[in-house]
Give the backbone structure.
Amino acid sequence: MSNQKKKVGLNTVISWGASVVIIGLMFKILHWPFGELFIAVGLAFLITIIMASKKPVGKFGLILDSLGLGFSVVAAVDVSLRNHAPVYAAIVLGVLSGVLGGLTRDVLCQVPPVLLHRETSGTVSVLGACVYVALYKSGYDSLIAGISGGVLIVLLRLASIKFKINLPKVG
């Protein structure tokens, strides 16, 4: 067996082992109070460390940004509604969570904030949060509402990036 095949085999075994440990840890953490929040913050921290560089954000970074935006908006709206916040407060908290989370990440990574170049982040966050609230208040399960709101956010965000759609500039 060649040295290269041994390396690939060993890396595969280590990767699968690490995946099992990480998934087991995630399921254990989910049973803690605020476990979902701990996982979200931990993943955001890891992505911040991995993406930390002074290079401009590329397509992969923008895709991760869109996914993070969708997850954070939906998570914040869900937590707000489960704690009996008014509808408008849940929408505002969702938008603030998504937009300020991305802004904080960019500042920590020392890259120009994506928010300054892609003004649609706030708009798609509002739309996704409204869809979540409308479905949730209509009696749909929070999972269906969350997936619908999150997918809408990600798809609209990626479409605005691909087709260079920005809000009109004032002045």
Observations:
- Residues 159 and 165 are 8 Å apart (CA to CA).
- The mean pLDDT is 80.
